[in-house]
Amino acid sequence: MKKETTAPGSNELQQLLKEKVAELRKAKRELKIEDALEKVRNRTLDMHKSSELSDVAVTVFHQLLYLGIHGLRRSLVGIMDSTETNWEIWYTTVEGESTTRFMTMSADGHPVAINMKKSWKDRKMIHIELKGEQLNSWIAYILANGWQYPKGEQPPEKFVIYGMPFSNGYLVAFTNNNIRSQEVELLKRFAKVFNQAYNRFLDLQKAEEQAKEAQIDVALEKVRSRTLIMQHSSELKEVVTLVLEKLQGLDVIMDGAVSIAVYPTKGSKDREHWVATPHLFTEATRFNHPWFEDPILWDFQNARESGLDYFAKAYPFEEKNNYLKKVFEITDYKYLPDEMKQSILAKDSYACSWAFANNSGVFVDSIEGRILSEKEAVILKRFAKVFEQAYVRFLDLQKAEAQAREAQIEAGLERVRSRTLAMQSSNELAETAMVVFTQLIHLGIAPSRLYIGVIEKDSGLIEMWVTNEEGTKIANQFTLDTAKNNSIKKIYDAWQQQRESITIHMEGEELLLYLEYLYGKLNIPFIKELLPEHRAQTVAYFSKGFIGTALTNEQPDEITKLLTRFAAVFNLTFTRFSDLKIAEALAIQAKEDLIKLQAEKKRAEHALTELQATQKQLIQSEKMASLGELTAGIAHEIQNPLNFVNNFSEVSKELLDEMKTELDNGNTANAKEIADDLIQNLEKINHHGKRAGDIVNGMLQHSRTSAGVKEPTNINALCDEYLRLSYHGLRAKNKSFNATLETNFDSSIGKINIIPQDIGRVLLNLFNNAFYACNERSRSIVNEQKTKNPISPIHQEGFENLPGFIYEPTVSVTTKKIKNGVIITVSDNGNGIPRSIVDKIFQPFFTTKPTGQGTGLGLSLSYDIVKAHGGEVKVESKENEGTTFIIQLPVI
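The structure assignment produced for this chain is given below.
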């Protein structure tokens, strides 16, 4: 058998061939890997936006699939944030879709996440196998953080995680089984290439942030520029629209809406919303949002009051709907379409992000329940600050406009006042009314009619001046009857209730009846094309009538306030009109009376002469009456000294008889003692004789006409003398009357320059009045006691002054020296003077005494005498307590 032999070198050749094939395969594999890596590099170089990093991650996943990684389910890129507390993750689906999903996961919330964080910090690869409870725990954790499984995908029974570190995170592959070592190396190479992609991502992100910042600056600058060129407060709406437009352009918006809130009234929680919703409004639209009690509103208010510049919070379904239902009921949001309101209420949650400033705030609502990111919140806060500047300028413009408006109103009112003062005839009232109408139209009232009504209270008739329907001229003057139309009666009733203004809305039957009355009964013309379906009558009242305007739509409060101010000024006009009518009537009457006055002139002059003579006689009568009263008092007063003179004379006669006897008997010593007694008696006779002489002298001084010459006078002695003369004068007429006399004289006064006869008359008048008041009160009390207890001893005449009687008449006089003067006070505890007549007591011929008992000249003359001395007299009185007259005289 022939033995086969192998050619020399054959085994080596086969081995060499195998090696070459292996090298070729390796080279081909390497080329394939390089091609895959190059595709990742190319996609990296094609990145123009940082958001395309997710597309690079998708490319990595597709190339790994292309290279045949065993059991690859999906890949992800995990980026560690700057605080090293969270993983930001982009991940593909199992099918490797061209889009990726994003989630944020805490780096410290699960053992797997903690292991990934620790390994990344050490720049080590991670290799984790999960199954059973570990796998279920991990899946529950990532689902809770936002991981989403596509519809129909089921979680695996086993998870193998391979993570290759790069500078800022991990490139992670999820497989069903462990992979080969060369595949692990392949992942490492892809991680290095992806690190380049991430560096480009960082560069793009930085550039985008710079571009974004520039875009934000441009947007803010446009808002500032629009703010600076604001010329009128109404332009705030345009600034608001621009702010909302720029926020939309910067994508700081959720669910299609962004809003600005302002607080028009300082200290109030009420606010106004300006809302930009492109699918509803073509421009920013204002909504009034009054305050109401709700937890969500309190969250916003507490954040604002605590000084926060930003607040964001999401609310669950029930709390959200409790708030929104009130919003749709109370605020202007109730005018949103019902379909939209129901759609909003059906959403599961609600969130709001607020940026606050002093007077305003910018906020973003989300009916999907999402709040703004940190970067979005920063943008919102910057816009809130810029809009606050716009709102401050708006407030300044508003204030300036209010001042200008006030100046316009005052000018209009002044024109009405000037025309009023220029009225020379009552017939000019209609012309003045037209000035009112002209000024109201100039100030912005655009009525279908203006009118002025003057009301006759008793008849219920209203005299009217009405413009034409353009309000350009007075077209009619007529009279309305409040009994003929209910709408007119409403105007009349409000005037009777003294209301400041009223607005009556008429439509339907009420409007038809009103127009029928004006047209059918009063023949007031109407332009048929201008007849409204609704009419608003706003009326502002003045004392005798009203100013009104008729509009076909609702009038702002400012119009009502304006009418009220013009009504107040027209009240002056009507007063002038009334005065002119009275003056005109008086002028006619004056002409008629002129002849009568001329005829009566001589008779009046004659009557005046007689009156003057009568007045002099009355004054003299008053003087003589007081002299008569004084004479009775003087007679009583003189009786005392005369009694003394008579008594001492009789005693002296007896002493002389005794002295003669003693002398006859030679008893000279006894005779001398009797002589001494006689001397004392003669001194007493002389004293009482002088006293009687002084009294008579005083009476003569009072009776003679005053020479008008002042002389030094002891005022204390004068007061004391006339007090007692007055008292005794009353006692002479009424023996049963007794009174307590009190004097309190200032001895430091000395003598003062007065006309003693005149001041004496003043004092006598005051003392007479004081004793008269005490006597009258004593009588009234006695009569009252007699009525209450007829069997009492007091019922008997003369018992009025029994000890312990309930009333003790008292008259007091006090003098006091003051700087540059003397005060004399005369007081009594009589009935007092009623308050209603205190101001009349110094009037000539006014008296409270019964007819025949007083002339009414005493106090009037006393007042004139004191005034002539450069002094003054005052009275203080309380009923049932007494009266005090205070005389102040200068010391010259």
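Interim note for the steering committee: Residues 793-804 have pLDDT under 50 and may be disordered. The chain has 18 helices and 25 strands.
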